[in-house]
Amino acid sequence: MNYNIAVIPGDGIGPDIVEQAVKVMRKVGDKFGHTFTTKTVLAGGAAIDATGGCLPQETIDVCKASDAVLLGAVGGPKWDNLPGGERPERALLGIRKELGLFANIRPAVIFEELADASPLKAEILSGGLDIVVVRELTGGIYFGERGTKETDMGPAAYDVEMYSEGEVRRIAKVAFDMAMKRNKKVTSVDKANVLDSSRLWRRVVEEVAKDYPEVTLNHMYVDNAAMQLVRNPRQFDVIVTSNIFGDILSDEASQITGSIGMLPSASLAEGNFGMYEPIHGSAPDIAGQDKANPTATILSIGMMLRYTFGLGAEADAIDAAVKAVLAKGYRTPDLYTGEGTLVGTAEMGRLIAEEI
Ligand code: IPM
Ligand code: MG
Question: In the prediction, which pLDDT does 318 show?
Fold first, then answer.
């Protein structure tokens, strides 16, 4: 079968890691008899340099005409002084909104081979860690009304946090469906002791839970969740939360694994369409130096195969290839602790492709 994929390398290490991910994808295609037709488009700083805007209409059109999108990373110091609305990061928000990518899936998994990379004590993580943050991605304070006004304390700026029942219901369903395929536990994170938007969130999540009697639901305030994640992360299975809380908690969860260069993510629309990207950023300091770890992007291809194309065996092959390469002791600089074999971006990609 043929699949059409829009590829956005982006900025910094984006092009380095995307190249390796595409290499692995091609290998999966050869092995399993699929063709992946890619079309490369611009977003972020690369688009600003080439066209003046961070998200050209052509990029949106190509993404919409594709079956899925692969993204490297956007942003870098070169564009840091642009006004908020023109920064490369704005491209991400634009793509999410334009493509209706309301559900952001961010797994935080500890790879057995990298267990000692976590900054947490070994006893806290004994038995491993496998949690997934389901973050609402097209609503809340990121997209609410914003503005400035005069106050008696001087000029003020505001951003509104607002959630509709429909928005909460659809993200809650994603979380419960995911829990059904995992350990059947959902923790909904909010700030319902203070915020009206969180009280609505909590009420709707409880309604949705009624359709999933097998899933255990608990609620947690976001401040407590931030603490529990480092105190006892193994209590979590699926965490579902708002856009901004999910932004913060998913970074925390990823850091617990100690290997941010290993974690993929999916941003899903209604239906099967999705955008897939590593959870790390563009790391401009090591761009183009063959130092970046391509594994998170390669695993993002795995998520694409699984979620958008329903190709479970192919996705499993990618996961297994990554594990095999780690087990053989190959490490990119971010993972290297003096043992095993230090390899660069391209060699890591080649090794993983070879295992497919
Ligand atoms: C993320 C990033 C983005 C976000 C930024 C770059 C706009 O932090 O994907 O988590 O806040 O959503
Ligand atoms: Mg973030």
Answer: 98
pLDDT at 84: 80
Beta strands at 130-136 and 68-73: parallel, antiparallel or unpaired:
unpaired
Phi, psi at residue 4, to the nearest 5°? -105, 125
Residue 346 scores a pLDDT above 90: yes
Where would I find the H helices in 235-311? Answer: 243-257, 295-307
Q: How far is the CA of 235 from the centre of ligand 2 (A)?
A: 23
Looking at the fold, whether 245 and 145 belong to one and the same domain comes out as: yes
Catalytic residue (choose from 3, 16, 27, 142): 142
8 Å CB contact between 43 and 12? no
Euclidean distance between CA atoms 167 and 294, whole angstroms: 33
Q: Is residue 110 situated within a structural domain?
A: no
Kindly state if the Cβ of 99 falls inside 6 Å of ligand 1.
no
Instruction: Select which of 223, 285, 316, 328 is catalytic.
Output: 223
Determine which residue's CA is closest to atom 1 belonging to ligand 1. Answer: 247
Residues 246, 166: Cα–Cα separation, whole Å: 18
Residue 153 DSSP label: T
Residues 94 and 209 in one domain: no
In a domain, 111, yes or no: no
Which of 81, 59, 58 lies closest to 70 in space, CA to CA?
59
